[in-house]
Amino acid sequence: MSAMDTPQRDAPDSTMLFGFWYRAAASDQIPRNGLHKAILLEIPLVIGRDAKGIPFALRDACPHRGMPLSCGRFDGSQVECSYHGWRFDAHTGQCQFIPSLTVGQNFKCDRIYAGSYACEEHDDFIWVFVPELPPLGAGFTKAADTPFDAPRVPIFTEPYKTAYLSAELPCSVDHGIIGLMDPAHGPFVHQAWWWRSRQSIHEKKKNFEPIPNGFRMSAHTPSSNSAPYKLLRLYADADSITTTIDFVLPNLRFETIRAGKYWFSSLTTVTPIARDHSRIDVVAAWNIFRWIPFSAALLKFVFAKFVEQDRQTMEDQAEGLKHNPHLMLIDDADRPAKWYFQLKAAHLEALRNGADMKHPMTGPVTLKWRS
Ligand code: FES
Ligand SMILES: [Fe+2]
Fold first, then answer.
1. 73-132 pLDDT, tens digit each
2. Both 89 and 216 in a single domain?
3. What is the C-alpha separation between 315 and 171, in angstroms, rounded?
4. Range of the domain at 259
5. Are residues 113 and 166 in the same domain?
């Protein structure tokens, strides 16, 4: 039997990948001098920004007796625990002061750290690096070094506009990601009178190629059902429009559409919060201003509709998944999902044996499906 005849039974294991940057919170949710709770990969974090506006992320547990630091006070440079008043530098997590110590008790408080995480802020989000070995809650560890920079939305010319959108997903990161790359749900989930109907389903053929840590749907004329394409077509030649979609571990989907001097680009992520809870964030950037169809409000409306349809679908699916059904991935429509699981497994295997990651794709592949 060929792979076409044997649907692969596959149950996502919801393994969360450490050692990567993740979007922790939208920038506009984090005011100066406040403390904001966030969870990434089941790690409780407290996020804030100092008096200069620079963000920080600490483990939300005091190294003394575990009180969430988010219950404490922040003066713009130090976080003070609400229980016994220990104070920590917001950026390094280093303990600065223990109020209960008397003169002559020369306990070295600067050896104590509240776990601190590397932070970067760009494209409307605060990103946090979640290392392989998390800093210990009650410990003496400094923040891990970051081996690479946080991902960015590709930008082609200045000036440009951006907009973002987020939605909580009541499912594991795996279901969120395969939903993101699943071409076959479009005609069923994303119906709208102004958009497309079930009848618009037609056969498609797309070329894919391996890229480091992921795969690319090679540059092609976008599907006539793709949202930005419908908008771009209003002022560019249909066949001058090309799109490229990349998926890169652990959770990044880049989509770039170019039409002459115009471009539209987005970076969508599905971030693991807990085993059965994730969040989808889309940040889009574009350089088209004069035309009403590309106003941020309209774009947000179109994307919000899509994201809401996906979110509702995943909420319904979560009901079904509670009962542990058998799951399957079929060729070719589910092949990107299979690559995702294979990439994840290859990444974990490379970590285990310290070797280079063995990419599951050996070369370009053409996939066909109807959607
Ligand atoms: S628990 Fe934080 S100071 Fe004691
Ligand atoms: Fe979708």
1. 999 999 999 999 999 999 999 999 999 999 999 899 999 999 899 999 999 999 999 998
2. no
3. 7
4. 161-370
5. no
- Tell me how far apart the alpha carbons of residues 229 and 240 are, in angstroms, rounded to a whole number: 11
- Kindly give the distance from the C-alpha atom of residue 311 to the centroid of ligand 2, in angstroms, as a whole number: 9
Ligand 1: residues with CB < 6 A are 62, 64-65, 67, 81, 83-84, 86
Nearest CA to ligand 1 atom 1: 65
Q: How far is the CA of 89 from the centre of ligand 1 (A)?
A: 15
Closest CA to 86 of 114, 105, 58, 59: 114
Query: Distance of CA 88 to CAs 25, 55, 150, 185, 230, Å?
Result: 22, 15, 25, 49, 52
Q: Is the pLDDT of residue 225 over 70?
A: no
Ligand nearest to the CA of 98: 1
Which ligand has the minimum distance to the alpha carbon of residue 86? 1
- pTM of the predicted structure, to 2 decimals: 0.91
Q: Are residues 132 and 268 in the same domain?
A: no
Compute the Cα dihedral for 255, 215, 321, 370 and give only its sign: positive
**Ligand 2 centroid – CA 234 distance (Å):** 23
Phi, psi of 169 (to 5 degrees): -115, 125
